Amino acid sequence: MTKKLSIDKPNAANRLSVAWPPFADKLTGVLARLEEDQYLIVSVKGSNRFVQFAAQGSFGMRVETTSNSYLPKPEQLNKRQVATLIDAGWQDPTGDPEESTPENDPDGSPNFFVEFASPVAFGAVAQLTVRTFAQILRVPYPNSLQYEAFESEGRSLALPELGLKLAQRAPNPDSQEDLAQHLLATLKECTGVSDLDYDEDRDIGIRHGSALTWVRLLGDSPFVRFYSRILHDVEDNGAIVSRLNDINARQPMVHFVFRGDAIFALADTCAAPFVAAHVAHALVHFCSIVDGMDRLLQAEFGGETTFVMPAASSLRH
């Protein structure tokens, strides 16, 4: 349970700007209006320090704040800040970005996190957010913050009632070629592989674990597709399609199909407007799901993975 912070009457030793209580009220109202599968990220301008909110409908709301796994050395949290986060009600990260993936650690996170059960006490969420920014991260006033909001499909949401500036994004590409270059630059940044490039089929190949993921733009439509042949030389025993349908029902963002003697995974994400963070997040999610699913399905139906020996991930998350 999070500890309530009084932000209306700050003491002399830890004064807060008078702008924080009105911001807390605005944030409370915005969070209460978020619908299932909608997300809000409030970040410090010019920094990777953030608090993010994931609305989960009847399952409540998950809130996360940046751990040192995603912070450069000048911004790393010190021991006192970490201890204060825990004292405020945040849970410790359960692993690093490689360990705490949705596949391997569905209830954990590589960030500090809190699960608020339904019905969500949105006022308490806002109080925790203000305490995190103002007292722990030492952000002087709300004007130092910016936001972005979106749905799971990647469509952006406008929340002017927050009173914050929209996070700076890459300019919208003026042409398909501009979009292709933005995509390539995003994948290079996400993977750290500087020599990534399109092949003759206009695909970009990225290895993760025992799987190979291909990324491409879908013709003239504003979508990016991730796809992977996760198993081949699979014999159809009559149960594969039923099993994949069951997986698809529980894994809405990645779709699995059986064609010929192979099992494929596919996922699309919107690229209009092109938001690099959304594309990178979708890639990391797709690769983490695919890399675990190929071994699982191989154990059930046989066949061969693309690579026998897993490779270390180059994804930066």
TrEMBL record:
Residues 89-110 are annotated as: Disordered. Pfam families: TY-Chap1, TY-Chap3. Residues 95-106 have a biased composition (Acidic residues). Residues 19-145 form the TY-Chap N-terminal domain. InterPro entries: TY-Chap_M, TY-Chap_N. Residues 177-307 form the TY-Chap central domain. SUPFAM superfamilies: Type III secretory system chaperone-like. This is Uncharacterized protein. It comes from Rhodoferax antarcticus ANT.BR. The lineage of its organism: Bacteria, Pseudomonadati, Pseudomonadota, Betaproteobacteria, Burkholderiales.
